[in-house]
Amino acid sequence: MVQHCDTLWHNAHLMTLDGAGTGSVRDGAIAARDGRIVWVGPTAALPDGLQADHEIDCDGRWIGPGLIDCHTHLVYAGNRANEFEQRLLGASYADIARDGGGILATVRATREASEDELLAQSLPRLEALLAEGVTTVEVKSGYGLTLEHELKQLRAARRLGELRDIGVATTFLGAHATPPGVDPQAYIDEVCTLMIPAVAAAGLAEAVDVFCEDIAFSTAQAAQVFAAAQEHGLKIKIHAEQLSNQHGAELAARHGALSADHIEYLDDAGIAAMATAGTVATLLPGAFYATRETRLPPVQALRDAGVPIALATDCNPGTSPLTSPLLAMNMGATLFRLTVDECLAGFTREAARAMGRQQRIGRLAPGLDCDLAIWDIEAPADLVYRIGFNPLHARVRQGRHHSLRPEDA
């Protein structure tokens, strides 16, 4: 029986991430039709009669799923290099925030920027991710803190996906900080009764996030945000246990959150709740590094409990000005002692789970989107081991092959 596909990638080694470990396949091939994978496996097992409109010889390179950056604050205006200098001189993240810096400094710059200006400032950050094999990115709002400016951020994030061939998932993070001169509870009430309904009605977000911390919002306020989000059909996430243990991850898990992110101060009760709910632990080594944190996330306890572990850049102007998933993987291994398999899964299979898209992306398997990263490496460990090294040969988004060398397109 003759089978047809649009493109066949062959003479390659595969990291399928489908099942345990990296799911390595030596001398493999991938066939795609209409943007989806229709076959993947060893070349020796290719179906008889398979015909491809276009064949790409990968010359022994490795193919893995396109990378997924599941936690970013990519869309913002301004620059906070001055705060980096302050931290070098001994100021803490909390000190800077209390003095009107931190998130609020970016809020001022973002409010002053037009949507087009936001887009122009954000595109170079996105292109840095694309250059390292990212095919899907999550982008949070949270630097507007009014309905007008939060919607502006979300629209700019969606436009990134129109201007570049990348999947963009948008998350509403209105509960990121309290605007100056506003009562925190009054602001949360506005987030829940005005902003979330408007964001949902406009179809501009898939999920709602909240920063639950002693310098941000309480667990009671986070619970209020979760209830409003779920009432309007939006998924939920949380920034939790970054600076202290507020039990936010446990709360989020009880509400069925997709992920709890940062979690350096996560306790056993939070881990148990996440394991029961299937809530993903998203670790953000860029923020850990940039803020010179010393409290390590409880990686072994997460492993023991079977909590999925994702990794992300946390690209943001203040505490993780990072646009390299490859460096984030190295940091995850070096700082958090994650294994190579965990780092690779963290930016593919588990990152997809943290976005609620595990049935579409993050693995090489029939039926999933044909999102691929093709690497000039000798072994998967090269992607985690090397520092300042980008071996990406080509990026494929829904079957569309974007080669870094025009002659290979």
Overall shape: it is: globular
Mean pLDDT: 95
> How would you characterize the largest beta sheet?
8 strands, mixed
Q: In total, how many beta strands?
A: 16
Oligomer: single chain
Q: Radius of gyration, Cα only, in angstroms?
A: 21 Å
Total of DSSP H or I helical runs spanning 4+ residues: 15
Unreliable parts:
none
What is the strand content? 15-25%
Give the helix/strand class.
alpha/beta
Terminus-to-terminus distance: 29 Å
Helix content: 25-40%
Structural description of this entry:
With 409 residues, the protein is α/β, with parallel strands linked by helices. It is 36% helix and 24% strand. It has 15 helices and 16 strands. The strands form two sheets. Strands 1, 2, 3, 4, 5, 14, 15 and 16 form an eight-stranded mixed β-sheet that branches. It has an eight-stranded parallel β-sheet with strand order 6-7-8-9-10-11-12-13. Helix 8 (248-254) links the parallel strand 10 (235-240) and strand 11 (259-262). The longest helix is centred in the middle third of the chain and has 19 residues, at 184-202. It is globular, with a radius of gyration of 21 Å. The model has no long low-confidence stretch (mean pLDDT 95).
Task: Label this structure with key terms.
alpha/beta; eight-stranded mixed sheet; 16 strands
In brief, what are we looking at here?
α4 packs across α5 (about 145-165) and α12 (about 325-335) packs across α13 (about 340-345). This protein has helices at about 80-90, 95-100, 105-110, 115-130, 145-165, 185-200, 220-230, 250-255, 270-275, 285-290, 300-305, 325-335, 340-345, 350-355, 380-385, and strands spanning about 5-15, 25-35, 35-40, 50-55, 60-65, 65-70, 135-140, 165-175, 205-210, 235-240, 260, 280-285, 310, 370-375, 390-395, 400-405. Helix content is about 35%, strand content about 25%.
